[in-house]
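Hello forum,

I keep getting stuck at the same step: I have a sequence, I want structure tokens, and every attempt I make locally crashes halfway through. Rather than fight my setup again tonight, could one of you with a working pipeline run this one for me? It's a single chain of 283 residues.
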Amino acid sequence: MKELLRWGIEELSEAEIPTAKLDAEVLLGAVLGLTRSQVLARSHTPMQRHQRGRFAALIQRRKRGEPVAYILGRQEFYGREFLVDRRVLIPRPETEELVDHCLNALEGRVTPRVADIGTGSGAIAITIAAERADAVVLASDVSSGALGVARENAQRYTSEGRIDFRQGSLLDPLAGATPLDLIVANLPYVGTSEIDILAADVRDYEPHEALFAGPEGLDLFPLLFEQLRDHALLKPDGALWLEMGYAQGAALARMARLYFPNAHKVAVHTDLAHHDRFVELNP
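Reply #2:
Ran it on my machine without issues. Output:
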């Protein structure tokens, strides 16, 4: 096993994969049904021929740039393993922080009503539903493929019908809904002007409709704010939480104040890396 792992690391390093060692260890663990720490602890364990062949095939896929999460078909998020494929973005650690903010905002609210807009894999909606058993959760996405993945994930962690999945653009699926305590949206926010500087495994594999929103990545936010302003979708003390790009904080805060000049609160929050990452709006 030790020699094969060394080969895998060398192959990925030659392909300029920045996480070569980690990726090789994770992929070898997937072949053997071991955790990464178990792989390191059992480095002298012999491998069968079919295991060596499967590992080599996974290394070749990673060399071509395919993300490890897509190779394995899963990604951990908030302590749970979510199914992912090329129909959805791979959940990021920063979005776990967004969930933290949402759960904090729901503290003290009884049977809160929550909507997750642009749910993708369902990671946000399902996590909130799992962490708050009393929450009433709606999740929407414009992509039928993404909703298929989200429903599969919901079956793993929630009871049948626990989350109301709806297809549609932005806040359209909320038409006629009872006013909500919280709306959370992790919308596409990467600018098409950035496509050439994106990591290849993101640019070449993750769904562009879930990544890009115009040249600066801001095109969807005015539409969202307009819908929120024109329809009574939030309770009077309700809140909207958004994830955004690290350089978009000032622009999004100005935009929010333009649409909601009398807002009770417009705040930009940083992530653990101290980058602007979230906007909180209490209209």
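The radius of gyration is 21 Å. If your local run keeps crashing, start a new thread with the error log.
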